[in-house]
């Protein structure tokens, strides 16, 4: 499989959907990906099964507050520094890159970095969606060591985390480093062999994002009808945004949005709470969906996911729920990615229709 | 020269004086140094002239808010991790350690780390006193690259800073890492050859601290008389502390203390402002001394320097000024360590008596 100029837009749409919104950073990433494809050719996507057992994978992406990326644009060569540092630290040649998470711009940057170096990206990721923290990666849940962690920025600063560092401490140090970098850092972590990745990563993520995006492109006139026919997908309501509260705090974009139903949904009110990604949907005081289910706010006309940092009063949106990978419904997955992991003292909730 | 059980207390007194106060962290360091000497023998202090030109030196110490160390005690093996990481990053064997600054506990920890590894410490440091920031090190002023920087804590976390990092960015990232570690980090930086150090470091710092401390020990009954006979030293006033304001903020202990004169100094009022170290002394609205001159508050009975984090209402103190190394009165030195570098829009001031 390849990501080329033809299917790039569809793929980015799918990443936006799985990330609960792509936003300005995803649009920047699409432009950078198109430029990279024109210069280096299509991005090769390798199935984990096609790699040798000991092929060395570098999961990577951006971390911090995506809000910041609207002004702080990557310099393009961050991936080169990540690969160089990981190879020097481990003494191993990186065979392929992997998205730490498929959702949002993190479904795109690793592809740009890969094609620039002539490497493939694997059809897998560490979440099957997007999550705000390192603890919420399938590699952590399945016991892959987080170190060495490499962080870099557009100024050629390189920070590495090692020693006997835990994922918890890596999260804390990555966050403080991203804040010191100016709010956003490019990072590599959880390096592993392809054999390990077959067990530890969420497989098929790139092709899943592409097929979701292609579905939206094929059904431009009725995207919500097409989406609701997908097994496990629920279009909860359509309406307009009546209020948004948002702060950029400690490297996260936190807040909530209130959607007033319109049309058939007139009279309904849904509140969506987010921390970089949407975490909880509440209707009339009742929790209707929680993380780890993917909660999206899609533009009511284009069906493009609206990033939490771009939500605004008056916007017409649809609240859509997508299923997540089974790893997140395991006890270990729920411990780090269920509502209680984010400070909500509520049980996991998903409507009957969400697989 | 050696630091052994006999002269350790005097040496620590001198470090406290040059650091504008040692405090609880220095007392912890003295206990750890005594333990290390009992276990490994006296600490060897090598003159920079006695080392081969290409002997590789590792300047090191603690950074962050010293206040924190009253509760967050080092684990002893931080130095081993610093040496191991520096050797791995540079591919060179460390021949000797050096104090990043002689003042306060940073005059002691590198000695503990050195003797544990059977290495000498050099009779030099990066300041000739103590300063709160990396920019205020003679190696920065004289153009030694700061990278690689290694930071570690008592939990075996290891963070390294590299790439094309500047001292400014290293300062920013060290600070955020120290805060993430819990307020204090052990660090190595500005690694260099002995030949470079002869030009870039402040030489004779360890022996200077020891001789100052021995002077105080020899004149226990009249320490201020003995101090004021030293060329360039001024005992500004004696009195008691009438007010202290202090916050721990962004990895620094910031604040000010007001000293009301007593005895011959009755009626005088001196305000000392600090940011980890004392920076400005003001009498009746007139600036009488500023950084880079060393401004100390000494216990009026023992002549032991009182750390900024231990100043309290009612304490009897003497305000003492000590000269600093000439490097700090150079244009490059004043740019990073003069009053304007700390946000005070005033010129460098020192009483006529301070050399």
TrEMBL record, chains A, B:
Protein name per its UniProtKB record: DUF917 domain-containing protein
Domain S-Me-THD N-terminal: 7-161
Species classification: Bacteria, Bacillati, Actinomycetota, Actinomycetes, Streptosporangiales
Domain of life: Bacteria
Residue ranges constituting the S-Me-THD-like C-terminal domain according to the UniProt record: 167-348
Xref: Gene3D superfamilies: CV3147-like, CV3147-like domain
Family annotation (SUPFAM superfamilies): CV3147-like
Membrane spanning residue stretches: none
InterPro entries on file: S-Me-THD-like_C, S-Me-THD_C_sf, S-Me-THD_N, S-Me-THD_N_sf
Pfam families with a match to the protein in the record: S-Me-THD_C, S-Me-THD_N
């Amino acid at each position: 499989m390849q990501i080329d100029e033809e299917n790039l837009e569809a793929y980015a749409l799918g990443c936006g959907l799985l990330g609960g919104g792509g936003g300005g950073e995803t649009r920047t990433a699409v432009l950078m990906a198109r430029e990279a494809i024109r210069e280096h050719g299509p991005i090769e996507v390798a199935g984990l099964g096609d790699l040798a057992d000991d092929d060395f994978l570098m999961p990577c992406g951006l971390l911090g507050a995506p809000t910041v990326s609207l002004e702080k644009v990557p310099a393009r060569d961050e991936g080169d520094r990540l690969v160089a540092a990981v190879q020097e630290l481990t003494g191993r040649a990186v065979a392929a890159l992997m998205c730490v998470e498929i959702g949002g711009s993190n479904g795109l940057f690793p592809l740009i970095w890969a094609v620039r170096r002539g490497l493939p990206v694997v059809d897998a990721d560490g979440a099957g969606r997007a999550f705000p923290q390192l603890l919420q990666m399938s590699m952590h849940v399945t016991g892959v060591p987080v170190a060495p962690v490499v962080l870099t920025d557009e100024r050629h600063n390189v920070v590495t985390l090692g020693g006997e560092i835990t994922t918890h401490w890596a999260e804390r140090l990555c966050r403080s480093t991203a804040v010191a970098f100016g709010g956003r850092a490019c990072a590599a972590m959880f390096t592993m062999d392809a054999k390990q990745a077959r067990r530890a990563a969420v497989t098929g993520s790139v092709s899943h994002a592409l097929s979701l995006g292609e579905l939206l492109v094929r059904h431009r006139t009725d995207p919500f009808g097409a989406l609701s026919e997908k097994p496990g997908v629920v279009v909860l309501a359509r309406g307009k945004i009546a209020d948004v509260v948002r702060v950029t705090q400690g490297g996260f974009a936190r807040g909530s949005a209130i959607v007033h139903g319109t049309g058939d949904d007139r009279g309904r009110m849904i509140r969506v709470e987010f921390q970089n990604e949407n975490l909880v949907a509440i209707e009339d005081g009742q929790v209707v969906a929680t993380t780890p289910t993917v909660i999206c706010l899609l533009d009511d006309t284009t069906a493009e996911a609206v990033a939490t940092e771009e939500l605004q009063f008056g916007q017409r949106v649809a609240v859509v729920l997508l299923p997540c990978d089974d790893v997140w419904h395991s006890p270990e997955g729920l411990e780090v990615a269920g509502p209680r992991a984010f400070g909500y003292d509520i049980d996991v909730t998903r409507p009957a229709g969400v697989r």
